[in-house]
Specification:
The protein is α/β, with parallel strands linked by helices. The chain is built from 32 helices and 21 strands. The chain starts with a helix and ends with a helix.
C-alpha cells in the first residue's frame, strides 16, 4: 500500500486508559468490538489458567507438607482451586462468546478475577514462606514465579486483571524475600515482575492494534461498497438510516431522488412519511407500508420488503432491507438499510403473471385463471351456503369457417366472439377462453337459476348473430353446458366435468341450445367409456364383420356391385349400431385401423366375386388426410388380387373442408391406381363444387333424406335431385340414389334420371355368404341371357 493510501486510513490511536478498560476515549475508534476481542482471547486460555492454578496449588501443598499444618494446607488448596474454577467458569460463561461488541464494564469487572487470584496466591509467601527454611522458601519462589509467568500468558489480553494479579502477588513475594533477609533477590524479583507486567501490556496492546486494524479494514470495505453504490447507474441501490424515533438521518442523495424529496430537507423526516407522500395525512397506507411500520416498531431486521409508493403521478415499487443498530452499551440507536427501485422487475413479473393467466389471442382469462376463480367461487359458496355455476361454451360451425377460410380469419372471428361475450357479463361473472373454440363462464353467485339460464340464452343469441369479417358474412352458433356447485360437483374439477357432460348433450342434440347437468349424464358418459374400451378390443377379438348391400342398375334392376358396411356384435352388449360406434371410433382415433381392416377385408371378398361386380368402401376424412393411405390401398389391391377398377371408395364432402391438407393429393394418387371414386351424401353439408369439378369422381350419391322427401312430393328435394343429376350428367358421372324402399320411390328415381339405386327395396345388407351367392347368381343369369 502506498503512503498516500496509508494516509487515508491512519493507524488507530491506542489510549492506555482505554486499553486498561478505565474509560471510553472520545475518538472515532469503536472500542466495543475491541473489548469483545479481549474477552474472547481471555476465554480461549481459561482452561489453561485453571490447570496452572490447580497444578501450582498441588505442588505448593506438597512442598510445605511436614513444614506446616496439613489442615491449613488442604484448606488453602481447596480455596485456591475453588477460586480458579470460579474464574474459569466466569470466563467460559461470558455472554460475549459470539458477540461482536462488549461494554466498558465487561472489561473493567475482570479486575476482580485478578485480585481474587492474587489474594489466594499471596497467602503462601506471607503466611508460610517467611517462616520456612531457605530451601523451602527458594522452592516457593520458583513455583510462584512460574505461576506468575503462566498467568501473564493466560490473562495478557485483559491487562487490568493481569496487572492487578502480578502487582499484588509480586509485592507479596518481594515482602517474603525481604523478611528472609535477601534484599538482592527481592530486587531481582521486583525487576522480573516489572518485566512481566510490561510484556503483558505490550501483548495486550498488540492484540488491540490487530483488532482495530481489522475493524478499520471492514469500515473501509463498507465505505468503498457504499461509494460504489452511490455512483452506480440512476436506478441503483440507495442507503438509508433512521434514529430511535424512526426519523431519517444522513439520507443518501439517491434515496432523496427516489422519493422526489430534497436531499437536505429529507433529513429529520419520518421514514414512513417520506414513503407515504400524500397518503401520510390520510393514513391510507399500502399493505407494504403497514408491514414496514410493524418491523420498525418491533425493531426487527427485514429483507427485500416490497413497498408500493407513489412518486409524483407514477406508481413505483421499492424493495427495502435493513437491520437495527445498537451502541456499545447495547442500546438501540436506529435502523440502517439499503433500498432499490424494483419497478421494472415488478412490471415484468406482473406481465409474466398475466401471460400465465390470460389468453394471448382474446385477452380473456385462460383455463388456469378460470380454474382459480371457479375454486374461489366454490369456496365462497361453501362458506356462505349459496351456489355458484360454471358454463362451458362450444362454438357451433366454427370448424367449418376455420377450415374453409383459414386460421387467420378464424382467429379474428374468435376475437369478435370474445368482444361480444365481454359485453354480456357483470361483476358477478367471469368469462374466459379454455382453448380452441371453447369458452367458459364462472358465475360467482348462481342462487337465481333463472338468471343463469337467461344469461345462457343471451350468449347463444348474441353469438349466433351475423358476423361481417374480411368481406365475409359468417354465421356460427353456440352450445352451452351448465353445472351448479356444490350440487353438481364438490370440487372445481368435478364441476367442470359435469358442465362438459351437459355441453355434450347440447352438441348431440344439434347445437344452438343449453342444457343443465343431470345425474344420468354421468351414467351415459360411463356407458360411452365402457363402449370405447370395448371398441378398442373389438378388432383383436374378432367381433367386427362386414355386410354387403346390393347396388343395382336403376333401369334394369341388375346387380352392379355391393357397398361394404361394417357391423359390430359384442358378446355382452349385443349388436351395436354403426350410428353409435362409428362417431365414437372417430373421436377415439380408432377409425384409421378400423377403416384399413374394412378395406382389406372387402377387397379380399370382392376378389372372389365374378367380374365386373364392384365393391364400394366408405373412407373417413381422417384416413385421407394421411399420405400413407395410398400405400394401404395399393397393398390391399395387390394382396387380394382385386382389379383396381372394381374398387370404389366413397368419401364425404367434409374431406374438402380442411384447409391446407393433403387429402386432394391423396385422392389423385388413388385415382392414378385405377380406383373409382364416389362422392357420398352430396348436398347435405358444405358443398364444394370447385373440388367436385377438379376431382375425377365416377359417381355422386344422393342422400336418402332427399329420396324420402321427393317421394312425399316435396318440391325442394325433387329440385335438388334434378340438379344433382344434371350436374353429374354434365361432368360425365353416374348418380346413385340411397334409401329406395318402395316401387314408387324406384319409379320416381328412374323418372328423375338416377342411374343406380340402393335400398331395402332391392335388398338389405347381406351376410358375406348371401352376398357371395347373389353375386354368383347374377353372373349365372347374365351368362344364361
Amino acid at each position: 500500500m502506498s503512503s498516500e493510501q496509508s494516509s487515508q486510513f491512519p493507524k488507530p490511536r491506542i489510549d492506555v486508559r482505554a486499553l486498561l478498560g478505565l474509560y471510553d476515549p472520545p475518538d472515532t475508534t469503536d472500542w466495543g468490538p475491541i473489548r469483545a476481542a479481549q474477552l474472547h482471547a481471555g476465554r480461549q486460555l481459561a482452561l489453561f489458567l485453571l490447570a496452572a492454578n490447580l497444578i501450582g496449588a498441588a505442588l505448593i501443598v506438597m512442598l510445605f507438607d511436614g513444614h506446616a499444618s496439613r489442615a491449613l494446607l488442604v484448606s488453602w488448596g481447596v480455596v485456591t482451586g475453588a477460586v480458579g474454577v470460579a474464574v474459569a467458569v466466569r470466563r467460559l460463561a461470558t455472554r460475549h462468546r459470539d458477540a461482536s461488541t462488549a461494554t466498558l464494564r465487561d472489561v473493567r469487572d475482570t479486575v476482580l478475577e485478578g485480585v481474587a487470584l492474587a489474594a489466594v496466591w499471596s497467602v503462601p509467601p506471607l503466611a508460610l514462606g517467611a517462616n520456612a527454611d531457605i530451601g523451602t522458601a527458594m522452592g516457593l519462589w520458583i513455583l510462584l514465579s512460574v505461576m506468575m509467568t503462566a498467568s501473564a500468558v493466560a490473562m495478557a489480553a485483559l491487562p487490568l486483571a493481569t496487572l492487578s494479579f502480578l502487582g499484588i502477588l509480586g509485592t507479596a513475594i518481594v515482602t517474603m524475600l525481604l523478611m528472609l533477609g535477601s534484599p538482592l533477590l527481592g530486587a531481582a524479583t521486583a525487576l522480573f515482575v516489572g518485566l512481566l507486567m510490561l510484556g503483558c501490556f505490550q501483548r495486550c496492546k498488540a492484540l488491540v492494534v490487530i483488532r482495530a486494524n481489522e475493524i478499520g479494514l471492514a469500515e473501509r470495505d463498507e465505505t468503498v461498497s457504499l461509494l460504489l453504490r452511490e455512483f452506480e447507474e440512476e436506478d441503483g441501490d440507495w442507503l438509508w438510516e433512521t434514529d430511535t424515533a424512526r426519523r431519517i438521518v444522513r439520507a443518501s442523495p439517491r434515496f432523496a431522488r427516489s422519493v422526489n424529496l430534497d436531499p437536505i430537507k429529507i433529513n429529520g423526516m419520518p421514514l414512513l412519511q417520506s414513503l407515504a407522500a400524500e397518503r401520510w395525512e390520510s393514513g391510507d397506507f399500502s399493505p407494504g407500508l403497514h408491514a414496514l411500520a410493524e418491523k420498525l416498531k418491533g425493531r426487527e431486521a427485514f429483507r427485500d420488503l416490497l413497498l408500493s409508493v407513489q412518486v409524483k403521478d407514477e406508481k413505483r415499487w421499492f424493495a427495502l432491507t435493513a437491520s437495527p443498530r445498537h451502541d456499545d452499551s447495547g442500546l438501540f440507536i436506529g435502523f440502517r438499510g439499503v433500498g432499490s427501485d424494483v419497478t421494472a422487475q415488478r412490471e415484468s413479473a406482473d406481465q409474466i403473471n398475466r401471460m400465465a393467466r390470460f389468453d394471448t389471442l382474446t385477452g380473456l382469462p385462460n383455463r388456469l385463471h378460470l380454474n382459480e376463480q371457479l375454486a374461489k367461487a366454490m369456496a365462497d359458496a361453501e362458506k356462505w351456503g349459496t351456489r355458484c355455476a360454471f358454463m362451458m361454451i362450444d362454438l357451433d360451425r366454427f370448424k367449418a369457417v376455420n377450415d374453409s377460410l383459414g386460421h387467420p380469419v378464424g382467429d379474428r372471428l374468435l376475437g369478435r366472439v370474445s368482444e361480444r361475450l365481454a359485453r354480456l357479463v357483470t361483476d358477478n361473472e367471469i368469462i374466459g377462453r379454455l382453448g380452441g373454440d371453447e369458452f367458459a363462464v364462472v358465475v360467482r353467485d348462481a342462487s337465481d337459476a333463472g338468471r343463469v339460464e337467461r344469461l345462457a340464452k343471451a350468449i347463444i343469441d348474441t353469438l349466433s348473430a351475423r358476423y361481417d369479417l374480411d368481406q365475409h358474412t359468417l354465421y356460427i352458433g353456440a352450445s352451452i353446458g351448465i353445472a351448479s356447485g356444490p350440487r353438481d360437483g364438490r370440487t372445481a374439477e368435478m364441476l367442470i366435468r359435469s358442465a362438459d357432460l351437459a355441453l355434450y348433450r347440447s352438441k348431440d342434440a344439434g347445437g344452438g341450445a343449453f342444457n343443465t347437468y343431470e345425474p344420468q349424464l354421468h351414467v351415459k358418459a360411463e356407458e360411452r367409456r365402457v363402449l370405447e374400451m370395448a371398441l378398442r378390443q373389438a378388432l383383436e377379438k374378432g367381433e367386427m364383420h362386414l355386410e354387403y348391400q346390393p347396388v343395382v342398375d336403376a333401369g334394369t334392376g341388375g346387380l352392379t356391385g355391393f357397398e361394404a358396411l361394417l357391423r359390430w356384435t359384442h358378446p355382452e352388449l349385443g349388436v351395436v349400431s354403426p350410428a353409435k360406434f362409428v362417431p365414437l371410433a372417430e373421436d377415439a382415433r380408432l377409425i384409421g385401423p378400423m377403416g384399413e381392416w374394412v378395406l382389406r377385408s372387402a377387397c379380399d371378398e370382392a376378389a372372389s366375386w365374378p367380374a365386373p361386380t364392384r365393391v364400394a368402401v366408405n373412407v373417413s376424412p381422417e384416413q385421407l388426410h394421411n399420405p400413407a393411405f395410398v400405400a394401404v390401398v395399393a397393398s390391399a389391391l395387390a394382396n387380394s388380387g382385386l382389379p383396381p377398377e372394381r374398387l370404389e371408395l366413397e368419401v364425404t364432402e367434409g374431406v374438402f373442408m380442411r384447409e391446407g391438407t393433403v387429402a386432394v393429393q391423396v385422392l389423385e394418387r388413388i385415382l392414378d391406381l385405377g380406383v373409382r371414386l364416389s362422392l357420398d351424401d352430396f348436398g347435405t353439408g358444405y358443398s364444394s363444387l370447385g373440388y367436385l369439378a377438379r376431382t375425377r369422381f365416377s359417381t355422386i350419391k344422393v342422400d336418402r333424406s332427399f329420396v324420402q322427401g321427393a317421394s312425399k312430393g316435396q318440391p325442394e328435394p325433387i329440385a335438388i335431385i334434378r340438379a344433382v343429376v344434371a350436374l353429374a350428367q354434365s361432368l360425365g358421372m353416374a348418380t346413385t340414389a340411397e334409401g329406395v324402399e318402395t316401387e314408387q320411390e324406384h319409379q320416381m328415381i328412374q323418372d328423375l334420371g338416377c342411374t343406380k339405386v340402393q335400398g331395402y327395396y332391392f335388398g338389405r345388407p347381406l351376410p358375406v355368404t348371401e352376398a357371395r351367392a347373389l353375386a354368383a347368381r347374377r353372373w349365372d343369369d347374365a351368362a344364361a341371357a
